[in-house]
Amino acid sequence: MGRNEELESLRDQVRRITDEIMRDVQKRLELAEQIGEIKSRLGIDVKDERVEQEIRVKVMALAGEIGMNEDFALRLLNILLEQSESVQALERQQPQKQTHLAVFMKAKQLETAGKKIIHMEVGEPDYSPPAIVGDSLSESFRLKRYHYTDTRGIPSLRDAIAKDAGLPEDNLIITPGGRFAVFSAMVALVKAGQEIIVIEPAWPAYKECANFIGAKTRVLKTRLEDSWTPNTTQLEDMINPATRMIVLNYPNNPTGKVLEKKTMDRILSIAKDHGLYLLSDEVYADYAFNSRFHSVLEYGYEKSIMVSSFSKRYAMTGFRVGYGIANKDVIAAMTKVQAIGITSVAEPMQHAALAAMAADYSQNVSLMKKRLGFVADKLRKMSLRFIEPEGAMYVYPEVPTLDDSTLVERLLGRGVAVAPGSGFGDSYKNFVRISACQPSEFLGRGLDIMATVLQESGR
Amino acid sequence: MGRNEELESLRDQVRRITDEIMRDVQKRLELAEQIGEIKSRLGIDVKDERVEQEIRVKVMALAGEIGMNEDFALRLLNILLEQSESVQALERQQPQKQTHLAVFMKAKQLETAGKKIIHMEVGEPDYSPPAIVGDSLSESFRLKRYHYTDTRGIPSLRDAIAKDAGLPEDNLIITPGGRFAVFSAMVALVKAGQEIIVIEPAWPAYKECANFIGAKTRVLKTRLEDSWTPNTTQLEDMINPATRMIVLNYPNNPTGKVLEKKTMDRILSIAKDHGLYLLSDEVYADYAFNSRFHSVLEYGYEKSIMVSSFSKRYAMTGFRVGYGIANKDVIAAMTKVQAIGITSVAEPMQHAALAAMAADYSQNVSLMKKRLGFVADKLRKMSLRFIEPEGAMYVYPEVPTLDDSTLVERLLGRGVAVAPGSGFGDSYKNFVRISACQPSEFLGRGLDIMATVLQESGR
């Protein structure tokens, strides 16, 4: 048989086997549909992590046996599982969730229509950036600071941050906000079908990024009863061959929690044992009110990514300057994503951030601490349960008598915006997030209205 | 049989069929490997578009027959094809390509080391933004323009651009540079395994974005002999069920081509006939030197996305402000991507862009036209072939005696940076891109050095 005939015969076999694969996959989907129907009748949740995990382990063993690349096997399996789930859940579409941003948009519309709103829903400080930032903006034009920069950021800003962190500047990238550092790290390190672990309640961006990639988010739920301390045994149990990253965010948005040192130690050792990336979003690190806070950088873990920003520390949200610190291969991969998406961060904004670094922000921190104390006092008088914030800019009380969306709507009707608890995780419908980014006078007025609404609801 | 037993039996079947699928997929990969070996011996390219296309058509037909979702079928098939290709090509890794950005980075390093460089490699105008932009920056701080904005941009800027375009502001999003408009449109509209068509030579960002998504780029090559006019019959032949988007960029980077009206008409009608998105990157629209240029917006095509920016028109590259215009569903989808990636564009930069809109930029255009004429004259004297630029900021001459990377290296050694032609497409190793973003005096000096280097190479 000539080479060309051999080629044709092999191609014939490929055609036949492709046909067979497609038919089997369709059969599999139909079986999944039947299972979905039965589950629906039995009132069982479509998603069954235990069954999925069992299949995953089996497929990995099979891959080993037949010599299939493990990454590829997992990717293929996750696509099958994902499609099955969407077939199963086809007629049970969930309503769009309300998040703090959705409430913010509604509040803005009400304001445009002439209504006065007390904003306790967004995490944007009401105080000003350091005055020196204004000077930097004013001289930007004269100094011709309006060009493309190195994708990783201007050398002077990278130097300054790297020096503060005691690291070489190869370990650093300047991003348009901490959000893009999270985004680019996840996109660079996690593939479709792989998994990340998020500890809830959590800033919704982590899950959004994972969904964007086609990665799967496994949620480790924490409880007010446990002071929001994650259960590290549960955490370790969630890890499987597809797990790629654990996301931390302490001081925490929305709970105000700072992790106990021994819990942080344990998470680090779990990440190491399983070779997982550890993304630590530390944008609230400056607002840590006890000495318990430890940056992931202190551990010198090779696969950690520390994210921070100028937004909260210096009240510079609108400048969109953040950064990521990681090993230089990770930074190189994040840089590629940044080059594809945005070329570089706006040059005048980078210089403004550099200028801010000379300013003292301790006043911001003491002001925030004072306000959070004020909010906590008010909530205690309302007999609500919560943990005293140990950091960040929020209090996250339980509102047992009302679900969050009802409370949020009623409050909006009376000119008060708060963030619904379920925006930070499905299990937190009986919580709201109160942001202390307003003067105490406004916060007091807003909380008095909230007390009235809760009283009226029969509490 | 009880519900629970039925469930168990169905799950058993799922397990068996999953096993079978995995084994068949592995068999398919092994067949692909054998085909790869034979091809390698016969000296045939691993990638065979014709065979792939045939499989794709067959699988789509099969999907229809067995009731499988077409999108899912394509996604699955593309993953199989992709993996086969990577198995086949395992030991034939291609070297990293040189692009204009890589040359820019090298040139910057040489400058840091004390060498003087004439920059003809980057598309960044050397003139200044309008003075009014400086005023806007100076008053940004006083006017407290440092907050998160609507994800789509500040209303005043959106109003102004929408009014200019004669469209409602729902059809518009402000992005961090035109690049992010391209990025977010592709990410929002094209899925992994789907295809986009790019006309080469082209700005590498389109292909980079497609790779990023896991989409496939089909390249329509154009030739200097045809004055870089794309062959629309070839274009239509490339379209298959997986095709999702055509990308246009006129005035063109790197060739300076502006499309003939009848070609543009024909492309529009092809896009319409096949229901394809048409992304038209028009960042050089202001630098169109003949009346032939027509924006995609003139066609009112429902599935078009027009991309533009403030970077080239007002020499505001470092401000990172661009925008996309499309139907409101597309804008909503792009907005979601932007919300996930960056929250919003830096507020002071948006106000600076708004300020710029009051300025006259006609001087920039006439200066660029004059310089391009100067470059063209010089190249003609060197007896190089090229088309006289009809727009944009570049000339793209053929350098038949040397491959581009050799020429680029030799020129860098003599203090001149130009962009290698192959950075805009694999087929253009005998071209370089000369950017006219420097005063004629420098351009003249750089081109004289290039003439010498070409002469020495035996031309």
What's this, in brief?
The structure is a homodimer of 459-residue chains. With 459 residues, the first copy, chain A, is an alpha/beta fold.
Task: Describe the protein's architecture and organization.
The structure is a homodimer of 459-residue chains. Chain A has 459 residues and is an alpha/beta fold. The first copy, chain A, is built from 15 helices and eleven strands. The longest helix of chain A has 40 residues, at 3-42. The radius of gyration of chain A is 25 Å and the shape is globular. The N and C termini of chain A lie far apart (86 Å). Chains A and B meet through helix 1, helix 2, helix 3, helix 5 and helix 7 of A and helix 1, helix 2, helix 3, helix 5 and helix 7 of B.
